[in-house]
Amino acid sequence: MSRQPTVEVKQLHKSFVQRGPWPWSPERRIHALKGVDMQLWPGQVLAVVGQSGSGKTTLARIVLGLEELSEGQVLIEGRRWDTMGEAERHRYRIHYQYVPQDAMAALDPQQTSLEHVAETLRVLGGNGRAEARKKGEEMLVRLGLSERFHALPREMSGGEQRRVTLARVLALAPRLVVADEPTSGLDPQRRQEVLRDLVGNLPTEAACMLVTHNMAAAKRWCTHAVVMLDGWIIETFDPQNDMPVHPYSKLLFDPWSAPLPGTSLATEGCPFRDDCPLVEGSDPDRCRVMPSLMATDHHDGRVACHQLASTDPSPGAALDATGSTNPSDPQSSGSPIPNPQPRGES
């Protein structure tokens, strides 16, 4: 595997100004990301999980330059992406692809599924008309759409629309795929099919960032996971082999294991401290300061919690932001994803 991360995010901050409905309404600054550090390595499939408003989609869009950051750095394959102009970014766009949440809105209502994929291959891939059509047909067949070459978006099911958006992305053999809730609104069976099509057809060393609310999907399809809360990354771990230990993460992955949170988050220090069971019997003032991600004795990842930090004072092996001790070693990049099985059409 490459010794260079596909994506490296350093101290990323993003804030918005929220205005009220009237001209005289006061403005309020919303801090969507608060000093996020993250690395995504070739061959990794990273789940970015958290409740709505945690900053997942903002992080994903900033990584690809679809939104501008307020502070920090974004590097893709070693290049400063955040300072690069769009004209310069254009020549790299073929390698860094985005799967939107709303597939229907991303499709042209007057184009068939094959026309969507072929046009992408011509415009971004530089393929000739005949070659683009041939590659488009091959990709649609791989995704179970061999009988839907000439279907318009309004004639497709929700799952078929999602697979057409995947075909447009995967046909380009990208090195980075950022997927924002690609299974939103689908029934459980279709969700698994779409994720199998996405992960199972990624190029060998492609990196994938999967924004999701579906914890079962993160466990099954992703080699690494980061949990976000109120603009912070609060835990990183291997979802296939380890269980999260931060009380908020446990609540997401196993709702029966932790008490339900209150109606609001703390505005100072750890945002979960008002509902955290670990605060009892400890020094509550420590939780008024947001901790950085630290090694823990419970798994090989990191956790932003004073109570769960490692008791071993030795620095040990350096961890990247996805929890890998040696990302250049394929064995440290998490468990292998399930092998996709041949599938029929649906």
Instruction: Look at the structure and give the mean pLDDT.
Output: 86
Helicity level, as a percent range?
10-25%
Termini distance?
A: 35 Å
CATH architecture descriptor text of the largest domain: 3-Layer(aba) Sandwich
Taking pLDDT < 50 over at least 5 consecutive residues as the criterion, the unreliable ranges are: 313-319, 323-336, 338-346
Query: Could you name the CATH homologous superfamily of the largest domain?
Result: P-loop containing nucleotide triphosphate hydrolases
Strand-and-helix sequence, N→C? EEEHEEHEHHHHEHEHEEHEE
Task: Give the tally of β-strands.
Answer: 12
CATH fold-level topology of the largest domain: Rossmann fold
User: SS-based structural class?
Assistant: alpha/beta
Strand content: 15-25%
Describe this structure in words.
It is globular, with a radius of gyration of 21 Å. The protein has two domains: 7-18 and 29-222, P-loop containing nucleotide triphosphate hydrolases (Rossmann fold, 3-Layer(aba) Sandwich); 235-332, no CATH class. The strands form two sheets. It has an eight-stranded mixed sheet with strand order 6-7-8-3-9-10-12-11, sandwiched between helices. Strands 2-1-4-5 form a four-stranded antiparallel sheet, with helices on one face. The protein has helices spanning 56-63, 86-89, 103-106, 113-123, 129-142, 158-170, 188-200, 215-221, 247-253, and strands at 7-18, 28-40, 45-49, 71-76, 79-80, 96-99, 176-180, 207-212, 224-229, 232-237, 294-295, 302-303. It is of the alpha/beta class and 346 residues long.
